[in-house]
Amino acid sequence: MTQVQRSDFDRLMVPSYAPAEWVPVRGEGSRVWDQAGKEYIDFAGGIAVNGLGHAHPKLVAALTEQAGKLWHVSNSLTNEPALKLAAQLVESTFAERVFFTNSGAEANEAAFKLARRWAIDNYGADKVEIISFNNSFHGRTLFTVSVGGQAKYSDGFGPKPGGITHLEFNNLDALARQISDRTCAVVLEPIQGEGGVLPVDKAFLQGVRELCNKHNALLIFDEVQSGVGRSGSLYAYMEYGIEPDILSTAKALGGGFPIGAMLTTERIAKHFAVGVHGSTYGGNPLACAVAGAVLDIINTPETLNGVKAKHERFVKGLEAINARHGVFSLVRGMGLLIGAVLGNDFKDRAKDFMTVGARHGVMVLQAGPNVVRLAPSLIIPDADIDEGLARFERAIAEIVGK
Ligand SMILES: *Cc1c(COP(=O)(O)O)cnc(C)c1O
Are residues 105 and 139 in contact, defined by beta-carbon separation less than 8 angstroms? Predict the structure, then answer.
């Protein structure tokens, strides 16, 4: 096949996605070009993945250098990039031990299995309850959709794994009523991403930590979306000053190369003894070499302070647009994970903002039907922010009809 086009998707692919009508072929920094040569400013970041934009020279160098050396050896051997990346993660977080995966869902799958194993080993077979929150998202494996708080993703696949309870997010009374000595873990996203870009309340998070301590339950933070600099700190938990027992990370960790990781402490990690859990590709040299280069750049005051400054620039720009067009009821989020909640007149139309935005040369995301989400590169140039917002305003003017 020499020439492919968007219509081939419908002919060849399982119809589980509905991709846009245009096909991107190249990216550089925060700009992307499609098959027709049209240019887009990227405020979507591959859904919070391309933390350093497209084709960052240091990531291209890390990948190509490793590609000429060693791609894969299996986990019956360790490898240098994996050990270096693990050291970077341990040195810069609460964690003492690391387990590598290929995706966010797998990092959460490892987290939930480890929490169950830890609890059963220490307290017996009854301590298996996992408490999660409505609207949360933890991935698409059967266990992770079942823990996730959106029934539309978990219904219709037959029996679900048991022992999972869903409660209202940010409601400490509900958790205090439910949690017991049979609870093995409480899991939450410090900023609910897919659920609408909703940061957790600090007082709630403090209360969750105390209730977990009281009932010997592990606190798991799913930082697949909020992590790796997105909040303005390396991990969002650092913004709150409250540490988890287990943390999952992925998305921006590889900057576009697939990798995930589960971080934890030594006393918990030891319950994943030899043979208890595994992955063929997890921790492969290519992914780890790229992720090491990602952390070298993102885990610096320069990048992280830049995220906070760019947050202000985006929020000011969105509020100015809103003053002229009145489309949002609220702009929320942290760092470069920003949600613009649509006002009543535009309820459930987030997808239109994506489609019309792309027509005007700017890529944005939705987070549910009612929130326009921005998750751009953490090093997006200010000029690209301004130009992208100008394009977005033209799209909004079209939607509003003026
Ligand atoms: C994207 C996401 C996941 C799933 O990650 P995959 O790499 O798609 O498996 C899990 N949790 C959160 C919070 C996410 O945003």
Answer: yes
Q: What is d(CA 156, CA 151) in angstroms, rounded to the nearest whole number?
A: 9
Q: Does 305 lie in the same domain as 290?
A: no
Secondary structure element (H or E) that encloses residue 262, with its range: strand 260-264
Decide whether any atom of ligand 1 lies within 6 Å of the 137 Cβ: yes
Structure tokens, 176:
């205090």
**CATH code at 78?**
3.40.640.10
- For residues 261 and 224, the answer to whether their CB atoms sit within 8 Å is no
- Determine how many CB atoms are found less than 10 A away from the CB of residue 18: 8
Intervals of the chain under pLDDT 70:
1, 402
Per residue in 129-188, pLDDT tens?
999 999 999 999 999 999 999 999 999 999 999 999 999 999 999 999 999 999 999 999
Cross-sheet strand order for the sheet of 31-34: 24-28, 31-34, 39-42, 362-363
Helix, strand, coil fractions of the chain, as percent rounded to 5: 40, 20, 40
Ligand 1 centroid–CA 365 distance in Å is 15
Within-domain flag for 65: no
Q: Would you state the structure tokens that stand for residue 255, as one six-digit string?
A: 């900057």
Whether 61 is covered by a domain: the verdict is no
Please enumerate in sequence order all residues whose Cβ is within 8 A of that of 205, keeping only pairs 6 or more positions apart, or say none: 188, 190, 240, 242
User: What is the chain's length?
Assistant: 402
Task: Record the tokens describing residue 331, joined without a space.
Answer: 């702009």
Instruction: Name the residue at shortest CA distance from atom 5 of ligand 1.
Output: 104
Of ligand 1's atoms, which has the minimum distance to the CA of residue 222?
13
Phi, psi angles (nearest 5°) of residue 176: -60, -35
Helix (H) or strand (E) holding 185: strand 183-188
CA 397 to ligand 1 centroid distance, Å: 33
At 9, give phi and psi (nearest 5°). -55, -50
Kindly state if the Cβ of 138 falls inside 6 Å of ligand 1.
yes
> pTM for the whole thing?
0.98
Pocket test for ligand 1, best of 145, 237, 251 (most atoms within 8 A of CB): 251
Task: Assess whether the C-beta atom of 164 lies below 6 angstroms from ligand 1.
Answer: no
Residue 328 is part of which domain span?
6-55+301-401
